[in-house]
Amino acid sequence: MGRLEDLRINAYLSEVARGYTNSAFIADALFPTIESDLEKVDIFEFNKEAFQVYNTERAIRADSNVVSPKGFTKKTATLTEHDLAYPIDYREEEESKKVKLQLHATNVVTEGLRLKQEKQCADLVQKPASYPAGNKITLSGSSKFNVDGSDPVGVIEDAKDAIAGKIAQDPNTMVIGHETWKILKKHKQIQGLISNNQNKIVTLNFLKEIFEIPNIVIGRSVFMNENGNFTKVWKDNIILAYVPALSSRTEYDPSFAYMIKKKNALNIDEYRKEGNKLKFIRATDIYTPFLVGPDAGYLISDTN
After folding, report:
1. Are 269 and 282 in contact, with CB atoms under 8 Å apart?
2. pLDDT 10s digits, 131-140
3. pLDDT, tens digit, for every residue of 188-201?
4. CATH domain 3-49+72-301 topology
5. Lowest CB count within 10 Å: 44, 74, 243, 247, which one?
6. What pTM, to 2 d.p., does this model score?
7. What are the structural domain ranges in the chain?
8. CA 263 from centre of chain
9. C-alpha to C-alpha distance for 201 and 157, rounded to whole angstroms
């Protein structure tokens, strides 16, 4: 096979990788993607200058009222390379239809990269240490949502107030772990809010209305643990956050978190090792999940 044909196949497989999605992956609801040309990115945190009440009155011929700038807080994110390769023996290649085998390998390595990314994000935002005091709660005893008489609406309203009190914005995004969702949609308090003229089925659209949060997603993705058992990536918790609803985001926009990716870094290539009979299909991506403003998020842990 000529080099030109190799390059054509690799370019095609890279397009397959960029278009490949898993509907169970929802981390991008909390981590909107910013693309960067460089692997070291400065993130500027917004301050509260715009919310200060200034003396704006000016007498004739008096000096102008001048703001005393508070400046920006800057954090630096360094991107990390991630790669995963799938081996294909020459005999496997000869016995199969080549493109199908390459597509299978592409899907496996791409899925592997994205599952790792999903888990990285989930581990970061499900860790209480990621949040400041007042922006997290661990439920226990009668406050757990699987206990009759518990108050999930009150807990979530308190979380919304905590975020608004620190960033002057209501949260617009909520991630609910699948185990929490199964309990929440059957909770008597939630069902009691449904009109008697309606079917008593709690839907995501209904939660969006009662909590006034436009973007609610359920974390359903799983991974295989060291014992070979499927384990939930998103645990029994709820994360609320303010994520800017912008069609084109930059690192200057305020947000709870960002996924910073190197532009066009997700690619598929082939390589061989000397002395063996294997060809490797390799996926590469360069990114880092970055928690920009912990004040803009709230963690409700151990709901069940």
Report:
1. yes
2. 999 999 999 9
3. 898 888 877 566 78
4. phage-related protein like fold (3.90.1690)
5. 247
6. 0.82
7. 3-49+72-301
8. 18
9. 21
